[in-house]
Amino acid sequence: xxxxxxxxxxxxxxxxxxxxxxxxxxxxxxxxxxxxxxxxxxxxxxxxxxxxxxxxxxxxxxxxxxxxxxxxxxxxxxxxxxxxxxxxxxxxxxxxxxxxxxxxxxxxxxxxxxxxxxxxxxxxxxxxxxxxxxxxxxxxxxxxxxxxxxxxxxxxxxxxxxxxxxxxxxxxxxxxxxxxxxxxxxxxxxxxxxxxxxxxxxxxxxxxxxxxxxxxxxxxxxxxxxxxxxxxxxxxxxxxxxxxxxxxxxxxxxxxxxxxxxxxxxxxxxxxxxxxxxxxxxxxxxxxxxxxxxxxxxxxxxxxxxxxxx
Length: 310
Ligand code: RUB
Hints:
With 310 residues, the protein is of the alpha/beta class. The protein is 47% helix and 13% strand.
């Protein structure tokens, strides 16, 4: 595999590239690099190369359907070109694939802007918003609310073990939003006084359940206990179509040394990167099509992904 692509795969698995949207963007960038640098002599050869690179990217972070959906779209597009345009040569196919993959970035930006607009309307004047981990979708919404002159505060939970909450806290305070960082264990104490909780999403299943950074379900359960609304902000591309067949989204288990490097021999350390929050704890998903109940997300997302159940 090309060195530049190997580097992207490493950056994704080491969390140098972090968050579902950034991961999906990097994966599409890798596919573009592959096509541009490819020495494939035939269209089939190019197609095989894309499958190989796609597999390497997808396994770098197993709990990322947005990346998988983007890769699948590019691979499907390539396949359809080969099947429907017999006269097309490999160079023409390369151009088409690069153009299609580049259009994906534009689509992502348009969807993101819409989500920020819908999400910003949920931020109450004088309110307190609790968030967990670092989601570029959530920070986008909060910045949009700030641009609209809503006066509010954010509590960012630290998010052990990789401390993505600090990225959130820094980004928001640099933007002029009053932000407090707190350890994850303070969640109950702080959510009690909050107006709403808002997190991102790595994956959404057919039942409307949410997979996001480990600790998200704790936030949701505590929010329910105190009657505080809990929202997840997510592009519909985060829906995992495989869950329609009963597949459960796999939870990435990362190296234990991220939690405790040098633990005593008899201590077993676990490091699941994500957890699942049942639909019943979620007031709504903030999507590019508006704020939708978890139970409705499956139908809307299938339409967006161009999938049909026959
Ligand atoms: C990040 C995380 C984020 C989602 C959504 O986990 O759980 O909430 O990925 O992010 P990690 P975005 O740090 O392990 O990647 O809204 O940017 O897609």
